[in-house]
Amino acid sequence: MATIDMQTVKTLRERTGAGVLDCKKALVACDGNIDKAIDVLREKGLAKAISKSSREAGDGMVFTYIHAGGKLGVLVELNCETDFVAKTEDFQGLGKEIAIQVAATDPSFIRLEDVPADVVEHEKDLYRVQLEAEKKPEQVWEKIIEGKLGAYYKENCLIQQPYIRDESKTIDELIKAMIAKTGENIVVARFARFKIGGKPTVC
């Protein structure tokens, strides 16, 4: 069994936001392998997050981010369950990071469930035209279209996007890690992105 030193525990905490005891247990279980321990903690965080996702998030804060000398601005409403969590440094840090994410990536929707059915069908029609032009056999169309839709959601839905500071994580995973850490449900309620000379995105 590998010896788990505090520096390794600290590194794992910084990368996952999990508690010291959880980090140590995961490292022991994974024989000191940080990458495997991260997977273990993410799985645990996901399970905790799912159990809390049905709880009402009636508190929270509105976060702002202004970029490019005032030429680009973002508002994000991030909800949690209590004012206590809303005022914590961790929650506020998450809100600011999500606002920066919206500024950088300009998503069109919050989550894939928000994408209207007619938009999905329009995308599918475009993919079918492409596949026909590429003379791809029809029996593989649906599988290819499914993959292309996945890429579309990943690009256009905030929750599905890779986190710009660490693309090994999605925004969804970032939020779920915070849910596991705070013990409260956390939800992106809405956002608005404004750019001088451009059409605003409001979700």
From TrEMBL:
Keywords: Cytoplasm, Elongation factor, Protein biosynthesis. InterPro entries: EF-Ts_dimer_sf, Transl_elong_EFTs/EF1B, Transl_elong_EFTs/EF1B_dimer, Transl_elong_Ts_CS, UBA-like_sf. Residues 82-85 are annotated as: Involved in Mg(2+) ion dislocation from EF-Tu. It comes from the Bacteria. The keyword Membrane does not apply. It is found in: Cytoplasm. GO terms for cellular component: cytoplasm. Residues 35-197 form the Translation elongation factor EFTs/EF1B dimerisation domain. GO terms for molecular function: translation elongation factor activity. Belongs to the EF-Ts family. Associates with the EF-Tu.GDP complex and induces the exchange of GDP to GTP. It remains bound to the aminoacyl-tRNA.EF-Tu.GTP complex up to the GTP hydrolysis stage on the ribosome. This is Elongation factor Ts. It comes from Candidatus Cryosericum terrychapinii.
